[in-house]
Amino acid sequence: MKKLLVLFGFLLLLSCWLMGQSDWHLNRNKHNKLPEGDLKMLQENIYLDSLGQRWELQPHIKNKFHQPDHKIEQVNHPYPNLDVAPTLDLENSNLKFLRKTENGGSYEAILQPDGTYLTTGLKKGTYNYSHPDGIWGSLKHVVFDVIPHFINAGYKS
User: Residues 63, 70: contact at Cβ < 8 Å?
Assistant: First the structure.
């Protein structure tokens, strides 16, 4: 039984490594989209862009990988493209919005306090092959989106 568990663990790690090197992973961002225009609050944590697309503001606990490495300076009018903006947290200043796709994935947009979206670097928003909704969705998100990112964040697109 122990040998079987070791073999399973090895195969899982190998699969994750191969997934992280694949074009499927490295080209994921060709699928990502950002909100269009300003975001208007529909209800708590739910915003609509100018096309009527629904974007869900994620809690900070689900946004740790997209935060600046240091506390930022106070900003006078943070998130100018939100009609109702949350209070600026200087240690967790970037906001993460997700829009679920029809195929079970999600678009990811990281909004910085100046109103621009983070689209470059290791902390940018990336397309999610699995929308982190519920226990099963979160587990799939970790396997298909998070682990491959830590294996290889050198996206081609």
Answer: no
